[in-house]
């Protein structure tokens, strides 16, 4: 009997050893490879995506994500349309309207920024301390703003073309002319002006005055949605979780990745950008407080489209709803990560 028990025990041990060997030999489930192109060089404004890579969120959703940072030589939307990447970051809703107008089969899936951070800055104490003072000032604006936001500002607030001058992403003309204003991004240009000019500029967030564009969106091709809806859902969900963790968790690894991709990025700039995103609810405010980060609503899309159509930025008869979908957002993903 003893020998029988011994033999049975040996057989059990051999079986356990065989199972362990099979588990070791079996390949791990392969992650789906995904390429995601951003709209500019790595920065805190892209932090949630880097966070999802750095802390393993994408991997937990079955994704192996490579982030391709944008810049002067890389156009994310062209890469997406050409099938070179799977997802791309869109700058704002106007780009979406343009895609619809041009029949580009690109669809907006989510908006990581509930507040478009586009701003105007002015010198303090020279009669440009209120938004209603700005239409009289010389305005340094880039060409893309002149074709879009500026047209709305003219229609809604009386800004004038004769006051517009080119802005080539050099703030020297604004610093030299105290009676001027300059466009910028809330999380970036004011920080640079404080260091270059030695003063804190007045900052006017255009969102506060009715400019309700979405920003920092996730886009993909229509055929990707049709063929791989589960992949799309996982990428959107993981990106949302990444943004919650970047805002409210330990983001040190994500910031290290940002600085690796963009060596010109500084700790000071990252800290400033993150603070402004939190202070003004750039990511987590408005509808996101109810439905989660990334949310888009039909009502807000209509509000913004009507304003842009009235200002002549886009034709009033385009079917703008073809440019986005609500299928993948508004599911309250990751909301438990927000501090109570």
Note the beta-strand portion. Answer: 15-25%
Strand order of the largest sheet: 2-1-3-10-4
Q: Tell me, briefly, the overall form.
A: globular
Number of helices, counting only DSSP H or I runs of 4 residues or more: 15
- Give the helices and strands as they follow along the chain: HEHHEHEHEEEHHEHEHEEHHHHHH
Strands, total number = 10
Major sheet description: 5 strands, mixed
Mean model confidence by pLDDT: 92
Low-confidence stretches: 1-10, 15-27
Summarize the amount of helix as a percent range.
40-55%
Radius of gyration: 24 Å
Could you state the oligomeric state of the chains shown?
A: single chain
What structural class should be given to the helix and strand makeup? alpha/beta
Q: Give the distance, in angstroms, between the N- and C-terminal Cα atoms.
A: 63 Å
Compact description:
The protein has 340 residues and is of the alpha/beta class. The chain has helices at 2-25, 47-54, 57-60, 76-81, 93-101, 143-146, 149-157, 172-176, 189-197, 222-227, 229-248, 252-261, 267-279, 288-291, 298-310; strands at residues 32-37, 63-68, 87-92, 106-113, 118-122, 138-141, 164-166, 180-185, 202-205, 215-221. It has 15 helices and ten strands.
């Amino acid at each position: 009997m003893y020998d029988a028990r011994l033999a049975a025990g040996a057989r059990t041990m051999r079986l356990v050893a065989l199972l362990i060997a099979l588990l070791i030999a079996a390949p791990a489930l392969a992650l789906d490879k995904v390429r995601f192109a951003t709209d500019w060089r790595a920065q805190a404004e892209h932090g949630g995506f880097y966070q999802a890579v750095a802390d393993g969120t994408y991997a937990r959703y079955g994704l192996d994500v490579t982030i391709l940072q944008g810049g002067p030589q890389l156009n994310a939307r062209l890469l997406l349309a050409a099938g070179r990447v799977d997802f791309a970051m869109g700058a704002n809703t106007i780009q979406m309207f343009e895609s619809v107008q041009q029949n580009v089969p690109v669809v907006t899936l989510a908006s990581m920024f509930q507040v478009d951070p586009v701003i105007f800055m002015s010198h303090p104490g020279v009669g440009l301390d209120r938004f209603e003072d700005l239409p009289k000032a010389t305005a340094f604006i880039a060409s893309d703003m002149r074709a879009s936001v500026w047209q709305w500002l003219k229609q809604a607030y009386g800004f004038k073309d004769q006051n517009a001058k080119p802005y080539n992403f050099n703030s020297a003309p604004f610093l030299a002319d105290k009676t001027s204003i300059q466009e910028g991004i809330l999380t970036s240009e004011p920080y640079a002006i404080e260091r270059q000019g030695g003063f804190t500029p007045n900052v006017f967030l255009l969102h506060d005055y009715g400019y309700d564009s979405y920003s920092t969106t996730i886009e993909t091709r229509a055929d990707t949605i049709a063929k791989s809806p589960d992949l799309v859902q996982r990428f959107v969900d993981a990106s949302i979780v990444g943004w919650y963790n970047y805002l409210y968790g330990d983001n040190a690894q994500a910031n290290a990745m940002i600085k690796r991709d963009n060596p010109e990025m500084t700790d000071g700039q990252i800290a400033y950008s993150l603070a402004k995103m939190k202070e003004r609810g750039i990511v987590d405010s408005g509808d996101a407080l109810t439905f989660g980060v990334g949310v888009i609503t039909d009502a807000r899309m209509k509000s913004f489209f009507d304003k842009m159509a009235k200002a002549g930025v886009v034709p009033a008869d385009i079917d703008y709803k073809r440019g986005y979908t609500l299928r993948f957002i508004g599911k309250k993903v990751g909301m438990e990560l927000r501090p109570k």
